[in-house]
Each structure stands twice: as C-alpha cells, then as structure tokens.
Amino acid sequence: MDIQLKRGLLDVCVLSAIKSEDSYGYKIIKDIKPHVEISESTLYPILRRLEVANLLTVRTAEHNGRLRKYYRITKLGLKRIEDFKLEWQEIVSIYNFVNRGEESE
Amino acid sequence: MNKQQFLNALEVKLCGLPSEDAQKTLDFYAEMIDDRIDDGLSEEDAVAAIGNIHDISNEILKDIPMPKLVKQAAKNSRALSAWEIVLLILGSPIWLSLIIAAIAVVLSVYVVLWSVIISLYAVFFSLAVCGIAGVFVFPVFAFMGNTVQGVFLIGCGLVCVGLAILMFMVSNLATKGILWLSRKIWFLIKRCFAKRRGGNEKV
Asked: Within its chain, how far is the Cα of A31 from the centroid?
C-alpha cells in the first residue's frame, strides 16, 4: 500500500482504538493488529504526532506497581474520525467510477 | 537481550536527541516490554518482539525537526576555556574560510546536480519541438515540389519524437533519484547533529 495513504489510515485506526474508552500502547497495538500491520516503532511516532496535533491527550496512571500511559481522544480527534468517514465516501464513489468497466464485463 | 540491556542500548542511540524526547521514548518502550511480559511472554521474547533499535531511533529522528536538533547540539556543547577562545579567534581566518569553502562546494555540487536535470529537460523539450516541426514542415516542402526532402524531414521528426520520449523518461528518473538523494543527505546531516552531542556527553 502507498506509504502516505497507510500513514493517514493508521492515524485514524489509532484514534478509533481509543474512541470508546482510554487505552494504552500495547492494547492499541493488539486491537489494531488483526486489521492493519502495526509495530511499536510505527505506533510511537503516530501517538506523538496525534498528541502534538491535539487529537488525543495523555495521562499517566499506576498499574501493577508501575506507570502506564493512557491515551484519551479529544473532540478534535472525534472530528478527525468523522471527517475520515466523509472522505471515505468520496473515495468509495471514486472507486466505483474506476471499477465500473470491470463490473459490466 | 533483557529489558535493561535493550533500554541501555536505545539510550545510547538516542543521546543526541533533546533529553525530554529521549526520556519519553525510553518510557514508552519500557512500558511496551512490561505489558508484553504481563501478557505472558518471557523478558527475552518481549524485547525481541519490540524490534530493531536502529529502526526505532531512525523513526524518532525523522520526526524531530532540524532546528530542534541544532539547538540541542548548541545547548549541550561544553563551555570553552579562555585559551580555546583565543585560539578560535586567532584561527578564524583559516577555519572560517575553510568552512565557507566547504559549504560553497557542497552547495555548488547540489546546484550542478539540478542543472543536469534542467539540461536533460531542455534536451527533451528541444527534441520534442524539432520532432513536431519536422512532421509539420512536410506540406511546405511538398508545396514547393521537394517531396523527397519533405519525407526525409518527417522521418527525422519521428526519430526526434522517439528520442524525446526516451529523454523524458530519463529526466524523470534522474529527478526522482536526486530527490531521494537529497532526503538521504538531509537525514545524514540530522544524524550528525544527533551524534555530536552523544560524543560530548561522554567527555
């Protein structure tokens, strides 16, 4: 898949993984992995980028006697997911246009 | 490799980054390893699952803007002693001109590379114009009664168009190559800045 496209998709995947409840790094990876290939070294820059862009916030909480970072989606993050869904409808309509020849055959 | 060895190795790789970024990164990977161990993996397996340290540090370096790295390198260079400053000032006619010359050489090599690209496109353009002109000039020759020359010109024109198409492909490839090279060099410069501070820290 095109790198730029995959990058944008992964951003939305990560946001969607923390949409319903706060989550932490390893859980995000476990949730996304069945759908898209993602590793720690990919996730880390994404989380940083999303935090800088104010799409998520980070808080540190204790777990099993050590610290763990939990990520919470912001209003902007939720909007990003909604924007993605709208964009995707456009992409689907483009796909249908590109694919129209094959279907009629 | 156990968790501590992994974190130490990563810390060495990150020592050129602003310390806040380096610490955040180390915390993140430490948490990842711990979570995998909680999940039932052995410490060795958990570390192995995280991936290659070189890739990790490269990913992070790509994300940090150049000005931040330069600032960090400047902030972390140690204070100079009086005689070092005197030497620096006395030597400035030599090292300053050498640095300027070095920068000028690098810049001119870069400009030359781009001029090659521009000239490749110029060749493509002129071939295309010649080709089209060669084909369209035929009616004029035919009108003047020089049909044979006209047909010859059409042939020349078609050859030019063919060459132009080839030239266009070559120019495009060369442009892509140079863009790729530019990105690589930019990344290497970034790594130099990240490394410099690493060297100073050991002093």
From this structure: 11
Domain that holds residue A13: 3-104
Query: What ipTM was reported for this prediction?
Result: 0.80
Residue of A23, A26, A31, A51 to mutate, interface with B, max B Cβ within 10 Å: A26
CATH of the domain at A37: 1.10.10.10
> What does the alpha-carbon distance between residue A82 and residue A22 come to, in Å, rounded to a whole number?
18
**CA geometry: angle at A4 spanning B17 and B121, to 5°?**
100
Over residues A65-103, the pLDDT tens digits come to 888 899 999 999 999 999 999 999 998 999 999 988 776
- What's the token pair of residue A29? 């990876």
Q: Do A26 and B51 touch (CB under 8 A)?
A: no
Among B116, B128, B130, B119, which residue's Cα sits nearest to residue B177? B116
With 0-12 / 13-18 / 19 or more C-beta atoms within 10 angstroms meaning exposed / middle / buried, residue B169 is exposed
Q: Which residue has the tokens 């047909």?
A: B151
